[in-house]
Specification:
The complex is a heterodimer. Chain A is built from four helices and no strands. By secondary structure, chain A is mostly helical. The termini of chain A are far apart. The chains are: A mainly alpha, B mainly alpha.
Chain lengths: 127, 123
């Protein structure tokens, strides 16, 4: 039986047959924000490296990081960072098998989305 | 192929192999980052935008330098564990292995460069 029709089986319905829902959107956003922050992390490493190299090199890199484009990248990164952090807390809660019913999970989802915007605004004000 | 039994081919497949250690590593690093990230944002953030001299002075202080080093070390470990799951979900075969190795080298490499740079600023 085991060799029957291997690799040529019908696929189960995948993403495209499902209506987007808050739980699925907040889930994929965790993955997107987490992995996209590689760019930010590399930018920060580059900035530290330039500061440790020379004033001239620092001015070049710092000029890029603090340009309007750099500011845009950093602000979006802060938003992604706070979202990922809040959603991470949600995962740490869920790891205890609590608050997993759909109404509570959706409330937590809205808390992650709203909370990340609030924390981003606070960060912009404080920093 | 004809000599392989069905049992032999199925053994070892499935999801329950080394997943627990990976899950636990991500959980530990995520809790660490829960503390480190706010500290990093509110030490690195105000420093960003300063002049070369201001940055040298700021990062010669132990606290911001240690926070930055820990954040890069734990952050890149957490990223590496996370990106491995991403790759395993969407890429298969030899490219999966190549990508995981490449991202692991990138993660540890970038962390090492960052830590070296901060150590040089701090010392």
């Amino acid at each position: 039986m085991a060799d029957v029709n291997r690799g040529n089986r019908p696929l189960s319905p995948h993403l495209q047959v499902y209506r987007p829902q808050l739980t699925s959107i907040t889930s994929i956003l965790v993955r997107i924000t987490g992995n996209a922050m590689l760019i930010t992390a590399l930018l920060i490493v580059w900035w530290f490296l330039s500061a440790a190299t020379s004033e001239e090199y620092f001015n070049t890199v710092n000029g890029f990081v603090t340009s309007w484009f750099g500011d845009l990248v950093m602000t979006l990164s802060v938003l992604g960072l706070w979202y990922h952090t809040l959603a991470g807390i949600r995962h740490l809660i869920w790891d205890n098998a609590i608050m997993m019913d759909i109404p509570t999970a959706e409330k937590l989802g809205w808390a992650c989305l709203g909370g990340s915007v609030v924390l981003t605004l606070l960060t912009i004000i404080i920093v | 192929m004809a000599f392989l039994t069905d049992r032999k081919r199925a053994t070892g497949l499935g999801s329950a192999k080394s997943g627990t250690a990976h899950f636990w590593a991500m959980k530990v690093s995520s809790v660490a980052l829960l503390i480190l990230i706010p500290l990093f944002v509110f030490t690195f953030g105000p420093a960003l935008g300063g002049t070369y001299e201001e940055i040298l002075t700021y990062y010669s202080r132990p606290f911001p330098a240690i926070i930055a080093v820990l954040t890069l070390a734990v952050g890149f470990k957490h990223f590496n564990d996370g990106v491995q799951v991403l790759i395993e979900d969407y890429v298969h075969g030899i490219s999966q292995k190549v990508l995981i190795i490449a991202m692991t080298c990138l993660s540890y490499g970038a962390a090492a460069i960052g830590i070296f740079a901060i150590a040089r600023l701090a010392l």
